[in-house]
Amino acid sequence: MRIARLVGRWVLRGFLVLLVALLSVGLWAQFSPRPGVFVINWLFSLTDTGEVKGMSATGVTGRTDLAYGTGKNETFDVWSPEDQTKPLPAIVWVHGGAWIGGDKSQPAPYLRLLAQHGYVGIGINYSLAPDHHYPVPLRQLGDALRYVQENADELGVDPDRIVLAGDSAGSQIAAQYAAVVTNPKYASEVGIESALEPAQLRGTLLHCGPYDPPMVMNAGGAGGWFVRTVGWAYLGTNDFTDPRVKQASIVDHATAAYPPTLLSGGDDDPLTEQGRAFAKRLKDLDVTHEPYFFPGLGHEFQFDLTRPQSREVLDASIEFLGRLGQM
């Protein structure tokens, strides 16, 4: 009986400790996005989102962890054809991860697949939320682009032929920077001086991105919680009437000068609603664009190259890049 009472006390104490911990975390979550960010990154760790499957590149060489700045996250990888003999167009890719996670290593296999067709593929890292807030990653993309131009000869890049690319949150960052390059009024509003002249930016490749954040900030359920958590982490505020929410919308700030764009998304991905809205905006502006939206596919489907639709997007991207090179 004594042992049973002791066990009962320890169980009760354990339950009370767990209850206090949960209440403390719940209280903390009212004042900080960090508990939610922890949960989301843990969920990310249980999936292979962002990993390329089904194909691998040949005839490509690369260097990793080169520095474009002094910050610990200001690094990039560069991939080039082994037989390169002249400067080539550069594809500068911003990785996904909801602005709170991810790494340049995730899209690297995809960049190598593109590089083998005659491009220099550059994948950048950037500082993550909630330790760093908007527009820090946008500024870092500009710093990376300046570094690429200043070191174009050493990198084998033609600085007058740049393509911005990205997936998920990285797609939003790349798309927003393209708006900065092509809309001086918007650049001034964001407070960023473009690292590129509009003529240098030949196009964008954008996959599964959030291009109109205000569209989903009031969504319900788990999806709404996710959006508001990462939005809070990235923007540094949980007041979603803050002007920065609308400022981060590419749908609202793209102009007729926006570069030719290829977009992809799957209809099972809640972000595809924003992709379609962005495609409609580009159509209304008479901007050259190629939308690839497929039923039954989810977020980051383009990296699973065992799927025919993903192969279609890759093939279309290669053809799209080829047309840009002729412009």
From TrEMBL:
A GO molecular-function annotation: hydrolase activity
Keyword vocabulary terms for this entry: Hydrolase
Superkingdom of origin organism: Bacteria
Domain called Alpha/beta hydrolase fold-3: residue spans: 91-302
SUPFAM superfamilies per the UniProt record, alphabetical: alpha/beta-Hydrolases
InterPro entries: AB_hydrolase_3, AB_hydrolase_fold, GDXG_lipolytic_enzyme
Protein name: Alpha/beta hydrolase
